[in-house]
Design a protein that fits this description.
- Strand 3 (39-45), helix 1 (53-69) and strand 4 (73-79) form a beta-alpha-beta unit.
- This protein has helices at residues 53-69, 84-96, 113-121, 146-159, 177-195, 212-225, 238-250, 266-274, 285-300, 333-338, 345-349, and strands spanning 14-15, 20-21, 39-45, 73-79, 101-104, 126-129, 140-144, 166-172, 200-207, 232-235, 258-259, 280-282, 309-312, 317-323, 326-328.
- It has two domains: 14-145 and 284-324, Rossmann fold (3-Layer(aba) Sandwich), CATH 3.40.50; 146-282 and 327-349, Response regulator (Rossmann fold, 3-Layer(aba) Sandwich), CATH 3.40.50.2300.
- It is an alpha/beta fold.
- The protein has a seven-stranded mixed beta sheet with strand order 4-3-5-6-7-14-13, with helices on both faces. A four-stranded parallel beta sheet has the order 9-8-10-11, with helices on both faces.
- Helices cover 38% and strands 19% of the residues.
- The protein contains eleven helices and 15 strands.
Length: 358
């Protein structure tokens, strides 16, 4: 799917849990470099089953962005299928095979540290992509503000249910830094309200492997436990939301319960049009991939990487680029997802029951 970067005039200043940061504007692409030496970049995907974004968006976007600025670069990639040991062995093989830059989206926050240490000894730059590697010497970090994502999701639910309502929280497995930060952000909003008895979290789960099927089972358990008395569900991403919505449909509750998400996939955008899902956190992955591609070339050439902030990972203040997440609802779906070139009307409306409203 061909997409172009969304043009925005300003972005918000965001605050991470531990540091004040400036949020990046969408990156532009520089002209291709001619005549440079050929080199290989290894791109590590944590799993294709935990989110469709890695295979369908981030990886092809990164390849396209890097080819546009340096046609001499070759990208090799692996999916670790959620297996930390496999991701480590894949990283070791990439170093042996001569990769000049490692772009790592880590399954968890520290498992890849031995690979990164090996890369450091060989002066191979490492980019932490979307999730930070803790206590490791990485040269660049690019992501969206994960704490803010969780805060936006929880705030949306709170703003759309009556005071005193019972809600549920369906997060993903807490094995990566972003996974943890989504939940931290959500409870930054929820905890004061829980303490003030203005909201009740009647059920919560950290979904193993971010499985939609497991999220459906968890939602069924929540509805049984709470006798269907659930006004809203804070859901960490769109994959989990599909499972949540399936369970709500079983009880004829789809469209009657506030449901959040993240990643704005075509399936979930259609669910927003149908009223089954209330919102999704919109993140234009092309921005992230393009920033990583630019940083890759800078690191190969020994240049400073562009950054908006420094993020401390327990070892160093890492030059970082953080983008602002945006709340996507039915009212701004066309503006954010269609007019930006992120997706198409045909893709969102595919299989729509009846006439698609777009």
């Amino acid at each position: 799917m061909k997409r172009v970067a969304l043009s925005i005039s300003t972005v918000l200043a965001l605050v991470l849990a531990t540091a004040s940061v400036a949020v990046a504007s969408p990156p532009g692409r520089q002209a291709a470099t001619a005549g440079g030496p050929k080199f290989t970049v290894w791109y590590s995907v944590p799993c294709y089953t935990c989110s469709t974004r890695w295979e369908n968006f981030d990886l092809p976007d990164f390849k396209r962005a890097l080819a546009a600025i340096d046609p001499n670069a070759t990208v090799t990639s692996n999916s670790a299928n959620g297996d930390t040991g496999l991701q480590v062995s894949q990283g070791e093989s990439a170093i042996t095979d001569g990769a000049k830059v490692l772009v790592i989206n880590p399954i968890d926050s520290e498992t890849m540290n031995p690979v990164i240490a090996q890369a450091n000894k060989l002066h191979i730059p490492v980019i932490a992509y979307d999730g930070m590697t803790e206590k490791a010497d990485v040269q660049y970090f690019v992501s969206f503000d994960a704490v803010k994502v969780g805060e936006e999701q929880a705030q949306y639910v709170i703003s759309h249910v009556p005071v005193g309502s019972t809600i549920a929280v369906i997060e993903g497995q807490q094995f990566c830094s972003s996974c943890i930060d989504f939940k931290i952000g959500a409870y930054n909003v929820l905890n004061p309200l829980i303490k003030a008895h203005k909201i009740v979290v009647g059920y919560e789960a950290d979904t193993l492997a971010w499985s939609p099927t497991t999220a459906q089972t968890e939602t069924e358990e929540a509805l049984t436990k709470l006798h269907d008395n659930v006004k809203g569900i804070v859901v960490a991403n769109d994959g989990l939301a599909t499972g949540v919505i399936a369970a709500l449909k079983e009880q004829n509750l789809a469209g009657k319960v506030v449901v959040t998400g993240q990643d704005s996939t075509d399936v979930n955008l259609q669910d927003i049009l149908l009223g089954y899902q209330s919102m999704s956190i919109f993140k234009n992955f092309d921005w992230e991939a393009t920033a990583a591609a630019k940083a890759t070339l800078d690191l190969v050439e020994g240049k400073p990487v562009p950054r908006t902030t420094m993020v401390n990972n327990g070892v160093a203040n890492v030059p970082s680029t953080l983008f602002a997440p945006q709340v996507l609802t039915r009212s701004n779906l066309v503006q954010l997802a269609i007019k930006s070139g992120y997706t198409t009307i045909a893709a969102v409306c595919k299989g729509y029951p009846g006439k698609c409203p777009l």
